[in-house]
Amino acid sequence: MGDRGGRKYDSPLRQRQTERTRGAILDALGELLKVHRWDEVTTKMLATSAGVSQQTVYRHFPDRAALVAALKHHVRNPHPYAGPPATLQEWANRLEVGFQDADKHFLAEVTANTLFNANTRGFANRPQERSSLFSAAVERTFPDLDAADQPRAAALMRILGSTQTWLRMREEFGLDGAESGQLVRWAINVLVREIAAGNLPPVDERAGVLDEPGSLDGF
């Protein structure tokens, strides 16, 4: 007798079909991200590109957060990690190449990882570990820098060289990886020279005390 309780049976065939459908949707998203900003990609566009219905997209990925998380694990970056940079100048040179590679070869993966880690309070371990590595590079580059100033310098460098910078330059200002990579390399090298010359501004004791109320509207 068959099961009359309406129990769903997930056969291996059905599971493979599910995985193929999910893969087709995620592959389509990766292709769309090559020519559209993340916020421009609609469910209709995604469904059309994947050859499925919008209802199918929603069934597999109920919201954008689910899409980002799935895309992050779907695409893989075959580019080997060369290890931590010895100096900030070396890091700047790597970033220029990395920003170009992100556009040419790893756009879907870098975009997915950037969006996935956009909430700094929910950072995965790897971004925090890499921040620590670059803090060490600051210490090696500026061995005589005051200990209180080292995290300030590291924060500047890390933000400039993050994939958040790459994505915002690409999607908000229309700069490709070659343009943004060159700019970031230049900016980091300028900062290295200025900090080495002792020009890192001191902490203003009045920091946080404003004459007039400020606003973060639009940031």
Key features of this structure:
61% helix; 219 residues; single chain
Beta-strand share of residues: under 5%
The major pleated sheet works out as: none
User: Count the strands?
Assistant: 0
Binned, the helix content reads: 55-70%
Query: Structural class of the secondary structure composition?
Result: mainly alpha
| Poorly predicted ranges | 1-6, 121-125
Mean of all residue-level pLDDT scores: 78
How much is the radius of gyration in Å? 22 Å
Count of DSSP helices? 10
Question: What's the order of the H and E elements?
Answer: HHHHHHHHHH
Label the overall shape.
elongated
End-to-end separation: 63 Å
How would you describe the overall organization of this protein?
The chain has helices spanning 12-32, 43-50, 54-60, 64-74, 88-104, 107-116, 125-141, 150-160, 163-173, 177-196. It is mainly α. The longest helix has 21 residues, at 12-32. The radius of gyration is 22 Å and the shape is elongated. The protein starts with 11 loop residues before the first helix and ends in a 23-residue tail after the last helix. The model is unreliable at 1-6 and 121-125 (pLDDT under 50).
